[in-house]
Amino acid sequence: MMQADEPLEFQPRRISASNPLRHLLFCTLGAVACFGVFSPQWVVAATKSTQADKPNFTGAWVLDLQASTSLDALMTQIGAGFLDRKYAAHTRLKATLNQTTEVLTIAARGPGFAFNQTLYLDGRNDPTYLQILGATSVNAKTVWSKDSKQLVETHHIRTKKGGDGELTIKRSLADDGKAVVVVMSLKLEDESPPTSARQIWRKQADLAQAR
Question: pTM of the full predicted structure?
Protein backbone atom coordinates (compact mmCIF):
# COMPACT_ATOMS: atom_id res chain seq x y z
CA MET A 1 0.00 0.00 0.00
CA MET A 2 1.03 3.55 -0.63
CA GLN A 3 1.88 5.50 2.46
CA ALA A 4 0.02 8.71 3.10
CA ASP A 5 3.18 10.75 3.31
CA GLU A 6 4.60 9.46 0.01
CA PRO A 7 4.39 12.07 -2.77
CA LEU A 8 2.27 11.26 -5.76
CA GLU A 9 4.26 10.79 -8.94
CA PHE A 10 2.66 11.69 -12.26
CA GLN A 11 4.20 9.96 -15.24
CA PRO A 12 3.78 11.67 -18.58
CA ARG A 13 1.63 9.56 -20.87
CA ARG A 14 1.58 9.71 -24.65
CA ILE A 15 -1.83 10.00 -26.12
CA SER A 16 -2.11 7.46 -28.89
CA ALA A 17 -4.41 9.70 -30.92
CA SER A 18 -1.71 12.37 -31.28
CA ASN A 19 0.17 10.56 -34.03
CA PRO A 20 -2.86 10.21 -36.38
CA LEU A 21 -3.83 13.83 -35.72
CA ARG A 22 -0.31 15.05 -36.42
CA HIS A 23 -0.18 12.95 -39.58
CA LEU A 24 -3.49 14.37 -40.73
CA LEU A 25 -2.30 17.91 -40.03
CA PHE A 26 0.92 17.39 -41.98
CA CYS A 27 -0.98 15.86 -44.90
CA THR A 28 -3.39 18.80 -44.96
CA LEU A 29 -0.59 21.36 -44.86
CA GLY A 30 1.25 19.41 -47.52
CA ALA A 31 -1.77 19.39 -49.77
CA VAL A 32 -2.28 23.12 -49.31
CA ALA A 33 1.36 23.78 -50.07
CA CYS A 34 1.24 21.52 -53.12
CA PHE A 35 -1.86 23.19 -54.56
CA GLY A 36 -0.62 26.64 -53.64
CA VAL A 37 2.77 26.20 -55.24
CA PHE A 38 2.15 23.85 -58.11
CA SER A 39 -1.41 24.58 -59.23
CA PRO A 40 -0.68 27.92 -60.98
CA GLN A 41 2.14 26.31 -62.96
CA TRP A 42 -0.11 23.39 -63.85
CA VAL A 43 -2.87 25.75 -64.99
CA VAL A 44 -0.42 27.70 -67.15
CA ALA A 45 0.93 24.46 -68.60
CA ALA A 46 -2.58 23.21 -69.32
CA THR A 47 -3.50 26.52 -70.95
CA LYS A 48 -0.39 26.41 -73.13
CA SER A 49 -1.17 22.81 -74.05
CA THR A 50 -4.73 23.76 -75.03
CA GLN A 51 -3.48 26.66 -77.14
CA ALA A 52 -0.86 24.45 -78.74
CA ASP A 53 -3.57 21.96 -79.79
CA LYS A 54 -5.34 24.64 -81.84
CA PRO A 55 -4.13 25.33 -85.39
CA ASN A 56 -2.19 28.52 -85.97
CA PHE A 57 -3.03 30.16 -89.29
CA THR A 58 -0.28 32.76 -89.14
CA GLY A 59 1.57 33.05 -92.43
CA ALA A 60 1.50 34.23 -96.04
CA TRP A 61 -0.90 32.23 -98.21
CA VAL A 62 -1.78 32.02 -101.91
CA LEU A 63 -5.15 30.86 -103.26
CA ASP A 64 -4.87 27.63 -105.25
CA LEU A 65 -7.57 28.11 -107.90
CA GLN A 66 -7.18 24.63 -109.39
CA ALA A 67 -7.66 22.85 -106.06
CA SER A 68 -10.57 25.11 -105.03
CA THR A 69 -14.20 24.79 -106.07
CA SER A 70 -16.15 27.55 -107.79
CA LEU A 71 -17.71 30.36 -105.76
CA ASP A 72 -20.12 31.20 -108.60
CA ALA A 73 -23.24 29.47 -107.25
CA LEU A 74 -22.74 30.82 -103.74
CA MET A 75 -22.07 34.37 -104.91
CA THR A 76 -25.03 34.23 -107.33
CA GLN A 77 -27.33 33.27 -104.46
CA ILE A 78 -25.98 36.17 -102.43
CA GLY A 79 -26.62 38.53 -105.34
CA ALA A 80 -23.06 39.35 -106.40
CA GLY A 81 -22.66 40.83 -109.86
CA PHE A 82 -21.24 39.12 -112.95
CA LEU A 83 -17.91 40.95 -112.82
CA ASP A 84 -17.41 40.16 -109.12
CA ARG A 85 -18.06 36.47 -109.75
CA LYS A 86 -15.62 36.36 -112.68
CA TYR A 87 -12.98 38.14 -110.64
CA ALA A 88 -13.35 35.56 -107.84
CA ALA A 89 -13.12 32.72 -110.35
CA HIS A 90 -9.90 33.84 -112.06
CA THR A 91 -7.89 35.88 -109.56
CA ARG A 92 -5.08 34.28 -107.61
CA LEU A 93 -5.41 36.16 -104.35
CA LYS A 94 -2.75 36.42 -101.67
CA ALA A 95 -3.49 36.70 -97.96
CA THR A 96 -1.49 37.46 -94.84
CA LEU A 97 -2.88 36.01 -91.61
CA ASN A 98 -1.71 36.85 -88.12
CA GLN A 99 -3.09 34.90 -85.16
CA THR A 100 -2.82 35.57 -81.43
CA THR A 101 -4.75 34.04 -78.54
CA GLU A 102 -7.36 36.81 -78.90
CA VAL A 103 -7.71 37.57 -82.62
CA LEU A 104 -7.03 36.44 -86.15
CA THR A 105 -6.39 39.23 -88.65
CA ILE A 106 -6.78 38.64 -92.38
CA ALA A 107 -5.40 40.89 -95.12
CA ALA A 108 -6.21 39.61 -98.62
CA ARG A 109 -4.93 41.34 -101.72
CA GLY A 110 -5.35 41.12 -105.48
CA PRO A 111 -5.28 43.46 -108.49
CA GLY A 112 -7.64 46.29 -107.54
CA PHE A 113 -8.83 44.36 -104.49
CA ALA A 114 -8.20 44.71 -100.75
CA PHE A 115 -9.98 42.86 -97.95
CA ASN A 116 -9.20 43.36 -94.24
CA GLN A 117 -10.88 41.48 -91.42
CA THR A 118 -10.40 40.93 -87.69
CA LEU A 119 -11.90 37.83 -86.10
CA TYR A 120 -12.31 37.84 -82.31
CA LEU A 121 -11.66 34.32 -81.06
CA ASP A 122 -13.56 34.65 -77.77
CA GLY A 123 -16.98 34.10 -79.34
CA ARG A 124 -18.23 37.66 -78.98
CA ASN A 125 -20.87 39.10 -81.31
CA ASP A 126 -19.19 41.54 -83.67
CA PRO A 127 -21.42 43.90 -85.71
CA THR A 128 -18.86 44.36 -88.48
CA TYR A 129 -20.99 45.46 -91.47
CA LEU A 130 -18.23 43.97 -93.56
CA GLN A 131 -18.72 43.43 -97.28
CA ILE A 132 -18.08 39.74 -97.93
CA LEU A 133 -18.68 37.85 -101.19
CA GLY A 134 -21.18 40.49 -102.30
CA ALA A 135 -23.21 40.51 -99.08
CA THR A 136 -23.13 42.64 -95.93
CA SER A 137 -22.21 40.93 -92.67
CA VAL A 138 -24.59 42.38 -90.08
CA ASN A 139 -23.07 40.37 -87.24
CA ALA A 140 -20.19 37.90 -86.94
CA LYS A 141 -19.21 35.37 -84.30
CA THR A 142 -16.07 33.22 -84.27
CA VAL A 143 -15.49 30.16 -82.09
CA TRP A 144 -13.32 27.06 -82.09
CA SER A 145 -14.97 23.75 -82.88
CA LYS A 146 -15.38 21.26 -80.03
CA ASP A 147 -12.26 19.37 -81.06
CA SER A 148 -10.34 22.67 -81.53
CA LYS A 149 -9.37 21.63 -85.06
CA GLN A 150 -11.49 24.18 -86.91
CA LEU A 151 -12.09 27.90 -86.55
CA VAL A 152 -15.79 28.48 -87.21
CA GLU A 153 -16.85 31.95 -88.36
CA THR A 154 -20.61 32.57 -88.56
CA HIS A 155 -22.06 35.65 -90.26
CA HIS A 156 -25.61 36.91 -90.22
CA ILE A 157 -25.68 38.44 -93.68
CA ARG A 158 -27.97 40.65 -95.74
CA THR A 159 -27.98 40.19 -99.50
CA LYS A 160 -28.16 42.98 -102.07
CA LYS A 161 -31.83 42.15 -102.53
CA GLY A 162 -32.48 42.65 -98.80
CA GLY A 163 -32.75 38.98 -97.88
CA ASP A 164 -31.26 37.59 -94.66
CA GLY A 165 -29.24 34.45 -94.19
CA GLU A 166 -26.31 32.76 -92.52
CA LEU A 167 -22.85 32.34 -93.99
CA THR A 168 -20.58 29.90 -92.17
CA ILE A 169 -16.86 29.80 -92.87
CA LYS A 170 -14.76 26.98 -91.41
CA ARG A 171 -10.97 27.08 -91.48
CA SER A 172 -8.59 24.22 -90.80
CA LEU A 173 -5.00 23.28 -91.55
CA ALA A 174 -4.04 20.46 -93.91
CA ASP A 175 -0.94 18.94 -95.49
CA ASP A 176 1.09 19.22 -92.27
CA GLY A 177 0.26 22.91 -91.91
CA LYS A 178 1.21 23.79 -95.49
CA ALA A 179 -2.38 24.49 -96.57
CA VAL A 180 -5.46 26.20 -95.18
CA VAL A 181 -8.82 24.67 -96.10
CA VAL A 182 -11.71 27.17 -96.11
CA VAL A 183 -15.22 25.72 -96.39
CA MET A 184 -18.07 28.19 -96.93
CA SER A 185 -21.75 27.33 -96.48
CA LEU A 186 -24.67 29.65 -97.21
CA LYS A 187 -28.28 29.28 -96.07
CA LEU A 188 -30.78 32.03 -96.83
CA GLU A 189 -34.02 32.48 -94.91
CA ASP A 190 -36.11 32.39 -98.09
CA GLU A 191 -35.89 28.57 -97.99
CA SER A 192 -33.67 28.40 -101.08
CA PRO A 193 -31.37 25.35 -101.03
CA PRO A 194 -28.04 25.84 -99.23
CA THR A 195 -24.89 26.24 -101.28
CA SER A 196 -21.26 25.68 -100.39
CA ALA A 197 -17.76 26.15 -101.77
CA ARG A 198 -14.23 25.27 -100.75
CA GLN A 199 -10.97 27.15 -101.09
CA ILE A 200 -7.44 25.81 -100.70
CA TRP A 201 -4.74 28.27 -99.71
CA ARG A 202 -1.08 27.22 -99.98
CA LYS A 203 1.67 28.55 -97.77
CA GLN A 204 3.60 31.01 -99.92
CA ALA A 205 7.11 29.81 -99.03
CA ASP A 206 6.21 26.17 -99.72
CA LEU A 207 4.58 27.12 -103.03
CA ALA A 208 7.74 28.93 -104.15
CA GLN A 209 9.90 25.92 -103.26
CA ALA A 210 7.64 23.58 -105.24
CA ARG A 211 8.26 25.55 -108.42
Answer: 0.74
- Name the pairing type of β-strands 195-203 and 179-188: antiparallel
Superfamily of domain 59-210: Calycin beta-barrel core domain (2.40.128.20)
- Of the candidates 80, 34, 61, which has an alpha carbon nearest to the alpha carbon of residue 174? 61
User: Which string of b and e fits 122-154 if b means at least 16 CB within 10 Å?
Assistant: eeeebebebebbbbbbeebbbebeeeeebbbbb
Position 167 pLDDT exceeds 90? yes
Q: What is the DSSP letter of 8?
A: P
**For the chain, what are the domain ranges?**
15-53, 59-210
Tens digits of per-residue pLDDT, 17-61?
Answer: 445 444 444 444 343 333 343 344 443 444 444 556 899 999 999
CA geometry: angle 199, 205, 206, nearest 5 deg: 65
